Amino acid sequence: MILHISLTLFALLLPALAHRGGKAPPQEPLSPDTDWATRHMAEEHHIANFDPGAFFSLHDYDSSGGWMPDDVRRTYGLDDESARAVSPAKREEVTREVYRLFDADKNGVIEREEWMGACERGVRLPDFGLGPGHHGDDEYEYEIHHFEKFHDENTKEEDLIHPEDIAHFAKHDREEAEAERQEVLNRQAINEANIPQKFRRQ
Fold this sequence. Notes:
Layout: H1 2-19, H2 36-45, H3 52-58, E1 66-67, H4 69-75, H5 88-102, E2 110-111, H6 112-120, H7 138-150, H8 163-187
Antiparallel strand pairs: 1-2
Helix pairs in contact: 3-6
C-alpha cells in the first residue's frame, strides 16, 4: 500500500519536477498558526489544496473506510524510526485524544462520516509537538525531505555527499549484504549455524 501511495504521489509530482529542473515547486511559507493537518500535507506530501475527504482517504492506509489506532499512530509518524524516543504514554495520548475528538460513537473506529462531520464543526487534528508526521517508506522520506531539496535529475553519484545521502546509501548497502548472506544460507542443504552446539560434532 505504501509503495502504491509513493508511486502515485511520484507520478503526480513528476511533471512539476521535470518543469523545474528536478526540484519540487516552491512552497508558500506556512503561517505559524497553520493547523497540523495542513502543515502535514504541505511538508509530507507537497499538497497545498485538499479537503477533509481527501485527507481522510490518503491516510486510510488499508482503504477500509475507517481509521484504526494504527492509522492514527502512522499518520502522526509514530511508526517512523525518527519517533523511537517518543514514550509509550505520549503515543497513547495521541491516539486517545484523536479518538476523543473524532470517534463520535466510541466504537474504536473513526469512520469517514464521523471525520467529515467533525471537520464540518471545525474540529482539527491536534499538534502534539511531534513534527510533521513521517509515514512514508525510507525511499519516500529520503526523496521528499532531502533529495528534492538539495539535488535534481542531473545529480551524479559522486555528488551525493551529504550525511543524509551517505546514511541512506549505507543502509541500502547493509540490506543488500544481508540479502546476499541470506541467499548463501538458503542454498546450503544444512545451515550449521542453526544447529545447537550440543548437537554438533566435536
